[in-house]
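Standup, Tuesday
Yesterday: got the pipeline producing structure tokens again.
Today: sanity-check two examples.
Blockers: none.

Example 1:
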Amino acid sequence: MIDWRKHHKKGLIAIGILLSTSALYKAQDVQGDPAKGAELFKTNCTACHTLDKKLIGPPLKGIVEKLQKEENINRDWLQKWVKDNKALRASGDKYANKIFEEYGKVEMQQFPNLSEEDIDNILAYTSNPPAEPAAAEPKKENDATDLNAINAQKESEATTKIVMISLFAIASLLIWILFKIRQLVKLSQSEELSELNKTRIQSFSELYAKYKIVGQGFMAILAVLAAYGVWNWMMWIGVYKGYKPEQPIYFSHKIHAGINKIDCQLCHSGAKYGKVSEIPSLNVCMNCHKAISEYKGEYLEPGHDRDFYNDQIKILYASTGWDPQKMAYTGKETPVEWTRIHNMPDFVYFNHSQHVVAGEQAIINSFNKKHPNDQIDVVCKACHGKIDTMNVVQMANNFTMGWCIECHRTTEVDMGNAYNQAYFEKLHDKLKKQYGSATKITVDAIGGIECGKCHY
């Protein structure tokens, strides 16, 4: 006969073991602070991982539970892996080397700066991520203002059209009336009037012959005005302040440089070390957008919704041949033909690094002195305007020769620089003797307006 009491005891023991294992399993779930872990995850992990899909590394949602269930791996192993995965692999750990091989031998970054508590917080976040807050109504800055401005502009345009059409109709009516009056006058003229009309000037040539000197003076004035008009028109060839062409991929500098505080030189790296700032390649964009496949920001430009921004990311993926599902390049690329906005003539030499590095503080100080109510913090803004507020980049200044010379005449050389103090000491002393002790060294004093500096 079966002794149910013995089996009952065994069952209770088995249940106890399961409960204790489950308790340990749950205890690991609740270690750490998920809220703090969320911040640490965003700072340290989002370049290679997301919670719910494969990126450069595997998805991390529930990774603690998954590894414990499938590989019998505990948090101690995860602590070692995050801090120094290279050392863990070197120790011969089988699973560490298996993961390394599975992900194409791409070495994970080491995080010796993270404490055990930090790692516990990150793991707690992957096990129990805080609920996402309800999507707030997207901020559409100046939406009402922009709509009012657009409506006012449309009303103004409509009013202008009505006025122009009315004036054209009135002018046409007056011409018709004059024509009819002329016909009536001809019919009513007597023979005496006809004889009198023969003695009157009947054409412009007769009028010119009679008043030849006045006519020649008038023509001379017209010639001078015409020459001035042509000269003035030619002087503004290539000056396109306010020019903002439509680009093949919509890129908002306000979102990238303004809201997300991306440094100008992260993308335009040539500005600091070279003559040109260069248009960044799409690979620079993909450094971030491999992990950013959709726009989740709060800011929406009036007239654009999230789908619009997401579509632009898809165009970026198609242009670079990136497959977001496989997280790999297909090799099928489509070159993007950007429309250049800032373009110096070939006969003008301009070196970005000279202004961005050597003249950085001097230019910022000079600009802020001349524009006390419109201060700048980055040297780029002195010429290109406040790019971080522009959704569509436009030319903010004229970029004429006179504009550059005026800047060189008013920008003081940074004499707080020890190198400049030593290099320009004799020049500074000479200028003080010539113009007084209050004189300052401006760029023109060190050759900034010599022809050969910009034209070669």
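Example 2:
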Amino acid sequence: MSFTVVLVGRPNVGKSTLFNRLAGKKLALVDDTPGVTRDWRSAPGHVGGLSFTVVDTAGLEDVTDDSLEARMRRQTEQALQRADVALFLIDARAGVTPLDRHFAAILRKMKTPVLLVANKTEGKASKSGLYESFELGLGEPIPLSAEHGEGMADLVQALMPFAKEDTAAPTDEPVEEATGDRPIAIGDQPEPAEDLSKPIQIAIVGRPNVGKSTLLNSLLGEERVLTGPEAGMTRDAISVDWQWRDRRFKLVDTAGMRRRARVDEKVEKLAVADTLRVIRMANVVVLVVDAEAILDKQDLTIARMVIEEGRSLVIAINKWDIVDDRAMALRQVEDKLEAGLGYIKGVKVVTISALKGQKLDTLLDGILATYAVWNRRITTAQLNRWIGGVLDHHPPPLIEGRRVKIRYVTQVKTRPPTFALFVNKPLDLPESYQRYLIADMRNTFDLPGVPLRLLLRKGKNPYADE
């Protein structure tokens, strides 16, 4: 059974709390501040044997101009048009407000069926609001406490008529952990064929107002998320399934990340924490930077964070269409990458204009190329021929008159490529020599732009006696 349920109502009535309850995970940001949710987001919902897609929306405001609130309302109306049923939430403790009455009148005229939900009905203070809600003309209200999980059985009963038998399961799933890390025994293992049915998870990150949401909209070809001149517009991480050239992607737009010292609002702290979660779950992270302030200190901090998490990185320089001296700008990019990310050679850099849709195919080609490197496996025979040549030309330095013996190397996992180096004294191998080995391996096996990890192990070559 699968159908789409959209949650609507004025700000701060508990829509995101109910969304998290139905999704079974804390996916949406929740705070007492009105207007935390700005874009609609969806996830699989499961309750009482029903499976459906649940959609959280921004709070409805009575505005129709070009303000942020009006654009949020249009996003909500777009989600309503795609839904099978809408849950119109009111705050039973606050009672029915004029704004509730206004939007109830609008919802009654829409084709989408509407169920009235009186939220926050725990305690006696909600009784009067529950009775008042009958006047909205949307039928008998469903008393509910999204925060405490009370009244869910009544909600299931109300949703039952909308369940569709034998339909496909919802595909707009929340971001799943996608590290792909799997232990591999020493020696070569057959590389499993890539499952092309699984989407490549792409996180779009960067400072506020660099064009992350505009990039997502341009890729999708629709106004899926809010954009505008206001900085910090995106708060929740918005996940969207998408397909390009027979490859499936899960695109995740994230909140802008400012320097920690400048983040003082609680909601922004929650949004940044959500962005960090998305980075840890991504396959490829696209760092969007502003062509007018290319790779400033915060950009490089985000890039290093991505590398430390073991994710593959692609840098998209946005607003390239307004750059006058492009040659100078590219030299500036090279210099800053060398100074700030010199240990990760070959990071893919693509110049784009998200607003005009320029070079988006080039960006996607770069993403696929980087993803392929991040998944690459090198045979043990190749690695040990390589380490033999390295030791002939540049052996480890002497430690107290004795040389550390490197006996064997093998790849233990991918995503990112990780290698075990067997030496007689792991603690004595200098870090500078380890960095040299990683740099030489990157050049020899063509592994640009992804983190490489080298694990030192003590032990003899397990194949020495064969």
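Quick observation on example 2: The longest strand covers residues 406-413. Confidence is low (pLDDT under 50) at residues 30-36, 166-191.
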